[in-house]
Amino acid sequence: MEKITILGAYGTKGSHQETSSFLINETHVIDAGNLLRSLDEDAAHIDTIWLTHSHLDHIVDIAYILDSYFTLRSKPLKLMGLPETLEAIQKHFLNDYVWPDFSKIPLSNADAMTVVYEAVELGKKYQLDETTSIEAMKTVHTVPSCGYIIRKNKTAVLITADTYKNPLLCETLKKYPEITALVLECSFPSSMKDLALESLHLTPSLAEEEISCIHRPIKLYFNHLKPVFIQQIKKEIYSTSLLKDAIILDDGDTIYF
Ligand SMILES: [Zn+2]
Ligand SMILES: [Zn+2]
Description:
Blueprint: E1 3-8, E2 21-23, E3 28-30, H1 36-39, E4 48-50, H2 56-69, E5 77-81, H3 83-92, E6 115-119, E7 125-127, E8 132-138, E9 146-152, E10 155-159, H4 167-175, E11 179-185, H5 193-199, H6 204-211, E12 219-223, H7 230-238, E13 247-248, E14 254-256
Parallel strand pairs: 3-4, 4-5, 5-6, 10-11, 11-12, 12-13
Antiparallel strand pairs: 1-2, 1-14, 2-3, 7-8, 8-9, 9-10
The site of one zinc ion has 7 residues, from helix 2.
């Protein structure tokens, strides 16, 4: 069985909750919501961050792993993402106003800049190591966004990241029978469906509609709960027949697929 570690599981920071990050292998992560506390000095070995979108809870630790481990790095940090995501980071985050533009700062240990950007092509398989590949899938959010399919050996997991209902989800699951696990976001309780629509997130009842098209066994995980609603969302998930066997992820958990 293959696995991925959850470095941060929640939809915003709480007193004991960290935001979205997944460790794919020793050098690749999806999103940068919580890299420093979870990885400590190992964060210096991360060389590629696959971004789902530009919201702060998914990018914040880019700033701190660059600042804290700048002198330990011997390779640039590669930021992969949709062109609009990379543009947002360059314009509004690593722009010399909010934080230094590390794409203009050379590494002290190598003949390269500290950060490089590369656009992700939707639907293209990128090989990360001998057994692992990653592929981006378009999602439905308030800014351009994507989820990722991670394949390890013959099995795969689909991580949607922030999304509202997305017709591509079922199409993708039908197309790729090797996907044995799904990490779906669930940000708000079902009573807040108007806010979910406005912010393009899911609730337990929207998630139930979303997965009703899946007609094969699949391990279902939920992440991105907003900490203030954890108890309510858990109660709703566990009392919904289609969702009741799902696992609600916490920081440090492992996804098996
Ligand atoms: Zn988010
Ligand atoms: Zn978001």
